[in-house]
Amino acid sequence: xxxxxxxxxxxxxxFSLWSLPGNCQTxxxxxxxxxxxxxxxxxxTSYKYSATGNFVNVPKGDMHIKLITETHFMWAQSDxxxxxxxxxxxxxxxxxGNTYTESIDYGIGMDNYLGRRQTFTLxxxxxxxxxxxxxxxxxxxEEVWERIK
Length: 149
Fold this sequence. Notes:
By secondary structure, the chain is mostly beta strands. The chain has a single domain, classed as Beta Barrel (Lipocalin), CATH 2.40.128. Helices cover 14% and strands 48% of the residues. Mean pLDDT is 82; it is low at 3-33.
């Protein structure tokens, strides 16, 4: 299948879900005091990766969106000026206690991770989601996501 077509379809699905009436808030708001506070739509605000020693705020114009349902996740990175997607991935996940494991079942720019599992420690505090872990290639990740309202 043509890569541009796949990117277009995946982007359309992601942004159509994101723009649903209430911006998914009907289902998200019910999770504030539930056992599934990780479910919802999230925007990356800051990160610390192996290559950097400090947390870095997401640059202006760079948008990272993550959608988490009861069984699946999907994230996309795009440029807000051009709306072009530079990377995305998704698949199923498991959550046992605070151990969150993603199975990268599809993606763009994710060739090194396709078919592999990525394990993180997940913590939610209010409207912030924290992911910390080591990717399957040994790359250290710490991310702070904010709930989209």
